Amino acid sequence: MSFDEEWNRLVQAAAERKAAQTRLNQLDGGGGGGVATSSGELEVSQKDLAAVGDAAFDLYERLRKDGDHARESSTGAAAGLKGDFEIGGALDHVATRWQEQLRTLTDACAHISNHMEYSNKAHADDEQHISSLFNSVSTLDEGFDERTRLQ
Fold first, then answer.
1. Segment 80-84 long-range contacts (CB within 8 Å, at least 24 positions apart)
2. Which of 74, 86, 102, 116 has the smallest count of CB within 10 Å of its CB?
3. What SS3 state is found at 80?
4. In angstroms, rounded to a whole number, what is the distance separating the alpha carbons of residues 113 and 107?
5. pTM of this structure
6. C-alpha of 66 from chain center
């Protein structure tokens, strides 16, 4: 069998396997394999938001504390090597970039944590507002019921 014949046979076999394996998981009411309600909307609970915010805050704290361990020794070594070796400048460059990247990452973690905390509070406030609206509607209904009883 020539190379081209064998290659064509392998390509055809792979295509047949792929065709047999390609399937889309669907839920009733549409949607793919994600978490969906009957209307296809994604649901997130306040517990989920709080968990993401807590994880981001924990990562922020660990990075802030543990990400800075090598700074002093790296910058000290870079300063000592700069006079005699080119590696000193390179080490200083790496230490500077590490600090910049660490700051960017901790800022992102803090942003996520704060946003999840805000979202959690905003959703709780929205729930309370909606609940108070429904309570006022039921009070209004009671007033209408009372008025019809008096007539």
1. none
2. 86
3. helix
4. 10
5. 0.51
6. 22
